[in-house]
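dude i think i finally got it to work??
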Amino acid sequence: MTNQKHQPIVQNKLTLLAIIVCCTASLFYLYEFFLRVTPSVMTVDLMRALNIKAAGLGTMAAFYFYAYVPMQIPAGLLIDRFGPRKLLSFMIAICALGAIVFGFSHDMFLASSGRFLMGFGSAFAFVGALVLVARWFPPSYFAWAAGITQLLGSVGAIVGQAPLAASVEHLGWRNTIYMAGLIGLGLALITWLIVRDHPPKHRKHPLLSSEINNEFKRLFLVLKKPQTWCVGIYAFCIWAPISIFATLWGIPYLVATYHVSTQVASMLSATIWLGIAIGSPLVGWWSDKIGKRCLPLVVCAALGLISTPIILYSSHLSITALYILLFIFGVAAAGQSLSFASVKENNRPSIVGTAIGFNNMSVIAGAAIFQPVVGILLNLHWDGKYVNQVPVYSVSDYRFALFIIPVCYIIALLVSLKMIKETNCQPQYLISLEQQSNLSEQVDTEVAEPILQR
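look at this
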C-alpha cells in the first residue's frame, strides 16, 4: 500500500526531471539556431566589411552547413556511443569559439572559418536533444516533444531576426557576435551541470545491446531501409525553402520588394519562425492524436506549395497579407519535425541517434547546397549596380533565383503521397519482429503436423 502511494510521487519527480533535462539540452538547439540565422540581418554589413558580393556571402554563410551536414551521421554515432551530456557540453563551447572567431574576422577566410566551427559544434544540438527525448519520455510523446524542441529552435531564430537587427544597429555586428560567444560558454557549463544521459535506474534493451558497440553495423541498419531514404528526401525538400529564405535571402528580398527597413523585414521574416514554433508541436500533437504520419506530412507540403508562390511572385500584397502568408510558410515547415518521428519509428532504439543524425543531415543539406546556389543565380541575373560599394539586386533578380522554393514543395508533396509508408505512429521494428515470430510459429506448425499424422 505504501509503495502505491509513493509511486505517483516518484513518477512526477521523474517527469519533472525529464522536462528539465530535455529543455536544458534544447537550449543548445535554440542557441545554434540563433547563430545559424545571424548573417540574414547583417548582409549589407558583412558584404561591406568582408568586401564580397552575393555569391561570396552565400558561400561564407554556407560554411556553417559544410561542417554541419557531414557531421550529422558521426554525431548520431558518437551520441549513441558516448551519450549526449559530454558531447553537447563540449560542442556548445566549440560553437561559442566559432562565434568569437567570426566576430574577429576581417576577410572571407576567417569569417568562413568561424562559421565552420559554429556548424561543427551545432551538428550535435538537435540530434542530442531528440536522443534525450527518446530516452526520457514514453514513445507516444516523441512527435509532440520533437515539435517542442523545434519550437525552442524557432525562438532562437526569432531572437536572431528583429532583436538581433536592433542589437546590430546599436552595438555593431562585431560586438553583438562577441556577446553571443560569451553566452555560449555559459550555456556549456549549465548543460554539463544539469543534463544526464539516462533516467535513474535505466537498463539497456537486452535484445539490442549487442549492436551498440558497432558503428558500421548501426549505420548499415539505418541506410539499408528504403523508408530512411524516402523520409530523408521529404525532410530535405520541406526544410530547404526555410534554409534559403528564412535563414539568409528572405530579409534582403523583402527589403528590395516592399521597400521596408531591415528591422521591419526582420519582423516579417520572424513570422516564419513563429509559424514553425507554433506549427511544429501542433502538427506533432495532431499526428499523434489521429495515429497517422502521412496525412500531416502531405498537408504541410501542400501549405508550402500554396503560400510561397504568392509570396514570391505576387506584386500587390499588403503587409498584413504578407504576415499571414509568411506564417503559413512557417507552419508548412512543421513537416520537418514530424519526419523525425517517422524515421524513429522505422528504426530500433539502439540506432535511433544514428537514424536521427542521417535525417537531420538530409534536412540541413538543402542549406549547404542552395544558399550558395541562390547567390550564384543572383549574380548571373544581376545588372552590375552598386550603391555605397555594395551590390544591389533587383526584385526580378530575387524572383529568378528563388524559383527553387516552390519546386522543393512539389517534390515533398509527391514523396509524401507516393513514397512514404504509413507507420500508424507505431515502431515498425516491433511489428517486423512480431511478423517474424508468427511466421516462425506457422512454419513450425506446418512441419509438426505431417510428423504427428505419421
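The chain has a mean pLDDT of 85.
im so relieved honestly
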